[in-house]
Each structure stands twice: as C-alpha cells, then as structure tokens.
Write a structure and sequence with these properties.
This protein has 14 helices and nine strands. It is an alpha/beta fold. The protein has one domain: 3-Layer(aba) Sandwich (Rossmann fold). Strands 6-5-7-8-9 form a five-stranded parallel sheet, sandwiched between helices. It has a four-stranded parallel sheet with strand order 2-1-3-4, with helices on both faces. The longest helix is centred in the middle third of the chain and has 18 residues, at about 185-200.
Length: about 375
C-alpha cells in the first residue's frame, strides 16, 4: 500500500497548535550553525504544549482524504485549450510533466512540454517564448525564485497568457502570474509538522538541528516554521546549519551535518530541508559513532523511505507530485472561468510518514487515493 505525505490536510491543526504553543511556552533562540541552548526545564509529557503537539502529530500520521480546494468550477471548462509545462532535467520535472499531461487530457485540453536546463535560466526564457507560439492559457515551470523569472512576465502578459510556477516562494499574484503550487507556504506547513513531531516525540525535550539552504527561499520558509514551533517549547531548543549551494553541488552536505552534530552532542534531532541532498547520512553518522540522533525531514527519496522501514531514519513529510500537476490545471481552469484562484490551490494535503505508516516506498505517493476523481468532480467531468 502506498501512502502519500501531502501538505495541507493538517495545516489548520498545526496553525492552531502554533498559537497554543505560543501561549503556553517560552522561546529559545536558534543561531546559524551554532549550538542550541536549553531554556528552562522540560515541559514534560503532561504539559499543554506537549499534549497539543502529540494530538496534532496523531492527526498528521493519518492519510488525508480531501483536497484543499473544494469549490467547483462554475461550469465545465471550455475544451480545446492548451497548457504548456517547461520541463527541466530533474526527476520531479518529469513527474510534474506526466501529471499535467494527464490532467489536461481529463479536462479536454491540449498539452505541450518544452525542455529547458534549470541551471541556465536563459533556456527557460527562450522556452517560454517558444511556448507562447501555441497560444496557451497557462505556462507552468518550477524551481526558480520570482526575482529570476520576473523579467519574462511582460512578454507573457503581452501575449495574453499566464504563468503558474511550482516549487518557489509564493509569487506576486496579478493577472499574469495567476497562482502557484507547492510554494513556500506548503514548505512552511511541512516545517511546522516536523517541529511539532520533534516536540511530541521528545516529550518536550527536543534539541533540534534544522539544516537549511538559504539560497532557496522555500527551504528557508520550511526551516523558520519548524523553528517557530520548537522554540515555543520551554524544554526544547532549535538551531540552524546553513549550507551553501556549493556544499550541495559538491556533496558536502552530509559531512557538514556530521561535523555539526559532533560539535554539539546534546542535539538529538536533525531536520533535513530536503532528503535528496543528504543521501548516505545514516551510514555517515554511524561511522562517526553518532547513534542517538533521529533523522527527520521533508522531500524524502525512496532511500529515505526505505530507511524509515529499517529504522535508520525516523520521520519524513513528502510530496505528491501528481497532485501538483493536477492543481496547476485546476488553477488554469479557474482563471479561464474568471474565478478566484485559491492560494496554492487550497494547499497540498499533508501526512507525516514513519516506520508504521510508510507502506511501500515510492518517489511520489498518491493521497488522497481518489484525488484525481475529486478534481474531476470539481471540473464537472467524468
């Protein structure tokens, strides 16, 4: 059985928890790359802070069953429209492409994919200009901050098309950039889940190292949200380890984490911004004689999910890439009908995966199990 760690099912619960924690706990400061400093005595398993965290964690361990967006289209969307996805060379882009193509077919639209190199933004710009030749209702792409692609907006506007970015900081919304999917808001929701889990699992004593990459705003949002939750637990503390893009590209992320944990052996949780950057961390920790640190994080690879089963990693949120593709088409259809486009299309449903509920590891996991049918019902198609 495949389970999916989607992103928004528990956001309301986590947001409520954050308010509760802020009211019940005191803060501790986390400093970049430093050591966490405990603030006060442990909250204890019976405290309101820990009880709230444990209740919220119990909820997010359950598979989500509904989408974040619930308002149907006014009428069935007009058929024959075209949507274009700018397909980069990484695995996630292929998954998004397949999903958008499937969703476009379901709603009666044409689909075009145009390749580009995500290490060279100029190829995105030239690709978008090519895409405009198809007179698309929307063009979607992923991975780059708005500051990188903002210069192409006037060209898209002049052509009467729209943009829907995926996996970026939430952009400035207007009549050209009509929405986003898997934005920093969804990443922040994942960070809250991870911070909540650490508070709950530790009974209010978590010392957490959040590993961040400031160059990517989505990861910054995730890290800050997780820290905000941990800091409200008086017996917990949070610190960050900021990694550079060079460290990621040159496979230096694992070594940097091991070194940070060697410097401060009081840390018992490490929260990874994206599992793909930290392949081999469990074995590296074992080789360093560090056997008492729990690895949690977002964006798990199939290896991370397998490690949940073998006990070398503890808990991960993740992504339903298929959901993202269908959400892109949903936002485009709402724009075509002159409807409001909900922020992040209502958000991605969430789930936290552990050894007990991970099921069969899969790079993109499918929950809600009927999410495609739910979208079709919103679109008035069978």
């Amino acid at each position: 059985m495949k389970f999916t760690p989607n992103r928004l099912g528990a956001v309301l619960a986590i947001s409520a928890l954050a308010v509760s924690l802020a009211a019940c706990g005191s803060s501790s400061d986390g400093t970049s790359g430093g050591s966490p400093t405990p603030t006060g005595s442990s909250d204890g398993a019976s405290s309101p802070v820990v009880a709230a965290a444990q209740a919220a964690t119990a909820d997010i361990l359950k598979p989500p069953t509904t989408l974040g967006v619930t308002t149907p289209l006014k009428t069935a969307a007009p058929t024959g429209k075209t949507i274009v996805y700018m397909k980069c060379q990484v695995t996630q882009c292929a998954l998004y492409s397949d999903a958008i193509e499937e969703a476009a077919k379901a709603i009666g639209w044409n689909y075009k994919a145009i390749n580009w190199d995500d290490t060279d933004p100029s190829t995105l710009f030239s690709g978008i200009k090519t895409a405009l030749q198809y007179n698309p209702v929307a063009i979607s792409f992923g991975g780059l901050s708005e500051s990188v692609w903002a210069s192409i907006i006037p060209t898209v506007k002049a052509a009467g098309s729209t943009l829907i970015p995926i996996t970026t900081e939430y952009p400035t919304i207007d009549d050209t950039v009509i929405g986003a999917v898997f934005s920093s808001n969804d990443f922040a929701a994942q960070g809250k889940i991870l911070g909540t889990y650490a508070v709950a699992d530790s009974n209010g004593t978590a010392k957490v190292l959040f590993v961040d990459t400031p160059a990517y705003g989505i990861f910054k949002a995730e890290t800050e949200a997780g820290q905000d939750v941990v800091k409200t637990c008086s017996g917990c503390s949070a610190t960050t380890l900021d990694l550079s893009q060079t460290q990621l590209v040159n496979n230096g992320a694992v070594a940097a984490v091991v070194s940070a944990l060697q410097r401060d052996r009081s840390i018992k949780y490490v929260s990874l911004c994206d599992g793909a950057f930290f392949t081999g961390l469990p074995s590296a920790l074992k080789a360093a004689g560090i056997n008492d640190v729990k690895i949690i994080g977002a964006g798990p690879t199939t290896t991370d999910l397998q490690n949940l089963l073998n006990g070398t990693e503890t808990a991960f949120t993740g992504s339903n890439y298929g959901f993202a593709g269908w959400a892109v088409v949903d936002e485009a259809a709402r724009h075509v009908e002159g409807m409001e486009v909900p922020q992040d299309d209502g958000g991605s449903p969430n789930m936290l995966l552990t050894k007990d509920n991970v099921g069969t590891p899969s790079v993109s996991m499918e929950l809600p199990s009927d999410y495609k049918d739910q979208f079709k019902q919103l679109w008035h198609v069978s």
